[in-house]
Amino acid sequence: MPRKILIFVFSVTAVALIAQLPIFPLISEMREITQDGESLLQEWTFVSLSAFYDSARFAQSGWLESTWNNYLILAFVNHLGLILAFFGVRSLLSRIFLKERR
C-alpha cells in the first residue's frame, strides 16, 4: 500500500512539473483594421500551462468568440495530454516498483 501511495504522489508531482514546461500549444491572434480592410495574423507558440491560462483569460475578456473557442479547444487538448502523462507515468512506475514485489 505505501508503494501505491508513493507512485500516486510521484505521478501527480511529475504532471505538475510537466505543466511548467513550455510544451503546450498557444495561438496568438493579431488583428489590424485599416482603410483597405481587416487583416488577421495568427502565430503559434509553445508556452507553459500557466501562461496559456493567462492568455486565455485575456482572450475571453476582450476578443472575439471565435478566438475564445480556439482557446477552449486547445485547453481540452492540453489537459488531455496532462491526463495521459499522469496515467503513463503511473503505469511506468507501477511496472517498475510493483513488479519487484512479485
Q: Strand portion, in percent?
A: 15-25%
Distance between the termini: 14 Å
- Can you count the helices? 3
- Approximate shape: rod-shaped
Structural class: alpha+beta
The main sheet orders its strands as 1-2
What is the number of E strands?
2
Q: What value does the average pLDDT take? A: 85
Radius of gyration using CA atoms only: 19 Å
Which regions contain 5 or more consecutive residues with pLDDT less than 50?
none
Count of discrete domains: 1
Helix content: 55-70%
User: How do the SSEs run, as a string of H and E?
Assistant: HEEHH
Question: What characterizes the major β-sheet?
Answer: 2 strands, antiparallel
Structure overview:
With 102 residues, this protein is α+β, with helices and mostly antiparallel strands. Helices cover 66% and strands 22% of the residues. It contains three helices and two strands. Strands 1-2 form a two-stranded antiparallel ribbon. The radius of gyration is 19 Å and the shape is rod-shaped.
Which SSEs are present, and which pair or pack?
Elements: H1 2-19, E1 24-34, E2 37-47, H2 49-62, H3 65-99
Antiparallel strand pairs: 1-2
Helix pairs in contact: 1-3, 2-3
